[in-house]
Amino acid sequence: MQKTYYDPADLKKFGKITEWSEELGNKFFDYYAKVFEEGKLSAREKSLIALAVAHTEQCPYCIDAYTQDGLQRGITKEEMMEALHVGAAIKGGATLVHGVQMMNKVNKLEM
Amino acid sequence: MIKSLHKRNSELANSQRQLEILSNGIFQSGELPKFKDKIAETGQFPLKAKKLEILQINVGYMCNQVCEHCHVDAGPDRKEIMTRETMQQCLEVIKNTGAHTLDLTGGAPEMNPDFRWFVEEALKIGVKDFIVRSNLTIIRANKKYYDLPEFFKKHNVHIMSSMPHWTKGKTDKQRGNGVFDKSIKALQELNAVGYGMPDSNLRLDLVYNPSGAFLPGNQASMEKDFKKALMDDFGINFHNLFTITNLPISRFLDYLIASENYEDYMYALVEAYNPQTVKNVMCTNTLSVSWDGYLYDCDFNQMLNLPVNSKVKHISDYNEELLEGRTIMISQHCYGCTAGAGSSCQGSVA
């Protein structure tokens, strides 16, 4: 039995998802490739966004892939960490902004 | 400053041992295909040499730096130096071939005592493109080298210099403490005499090697980022940036093994294999001459002690007919030149 849920080698097999649904798989990968092309945002900026999202999604495959991608693009570790803090700030903010809901509820129920 | 593998008596100072590592393990077990089988898939084996265009001469392994990734295992403790006699033999060959490019490498080529003599003599013959691979810091290493920018200018030498990043941290980590600051100063001095300026004929190109176990990014994008950062931060101009993949040999192989990145790196190279690059790999139009005059298909094969597959083994016996069409010597390190957009001493090839 597999001892862990995640296997780093599975990242290399990502493309195989098309085998069980070729049309949708291909459409996804075409879309994915298009998204990361140079556009109004540079491919470098997109790589940093992807790295931050990879962390907020806590996807080990994506973290592996976009750390590697960042290094290949010459992105420094300081830039990577700064991007992560953006993700962390949004995650933290998203948690704390719900505090208003809690406060509303408390204020409504308490005498 | 770290010592060379030779000085440390490392087993990887032995080229035979390096070739064993590259042929055993994941390649022997069939987990990864051997380079020979990979290029055979598209009918490109055996790889044959075409007409000679570039003569790359390694004038010695002595260097003022000890870079972590150096495939030459160069350093101050290396004493192998090309003699004037061997240089003379190289000049005879340049005279008699149609090679348009002469590419001097090392070590630090400028540390060879006959370096300036060789540059002057080679230019008399009339080479179209005369490249010196300068590590930049040599210009600031000692007073006797301070006039190098003027010397290069006087002889219209094409400068190609290594620069792994536009930040100090990444550069010094790969090339040694203080290298970044000295390199920046040297680039500014080269700019001051006209090198690398937008309309200047004095060519100044940078060479980028990744500072770790990853492949280089897109050459054009990297060039754009380097140009912006070096101009914004230091007012530096240069012409082109060439990206080069680190090949898994010598000190870079030592690093890969010590950091437990070897297998993943070989996987990455094989995965990024691009059959389109094979027809343009540099060994097909280049000949590499070692400090003692022996001939190799490329500088990497020189370091692995894989001599040309020809009756002609030494520059003194050079024979164009016998060398053209020779079968190129290959091993698993060759995946480094065929990954992604490919890699050569002149940057990407596809």
TrEMBL record, chain A:
GO terms for molecular function: peroxiredoxin activity. It comes from the Bacteria. Residues 23-102 form the Carboxymuconolactone decarboxylase-like domain. InterPro entries: AhpD-like, AhpD_core, AlkhydPrxdase/COmuclacdeCOase, CMD-like. NCBIfam families: ahpD_dom, perox_w_seleSAM. This is 4-carboxymuconolactone decarboxylase.
UniProtKB/TrEMBL annotation, chain B:
CDD domains: Radical_SAM (cd01335). Pfam families: DUF3641 (PF12345), Radical_SAM (PF04055). Residues 215-348 form the Arsenosugar biosynthesis radical SAM protein ArsS-like C-terminal domain. GO terms for molecular function: catalytic activity; iron-sulfur cluster binding; metal ion binding. Its cofactor is [4Fe-4S] cluster. InterPro entries: Aldolase_TIM (IPR013785), ArsS-like_C (IPR024521), rSAM (IPR007197), rSAM_ArsS-like (IPR026351), rSAM_sf (IPR058240). Residues 57-195 form the Radical SAM core domain. Keywords: Iron, Iron-sulfur, Metal-binding, S-adenosyl-L-methionine. PANTHER family: FE-S OXIDOREDUCTASE (PTHR43728:SF1), SLR0304 PROTEIN (PTHR43728). This is Radical SAM/Cys-rich domain protein. It comes from Gelidibacter gilvus.
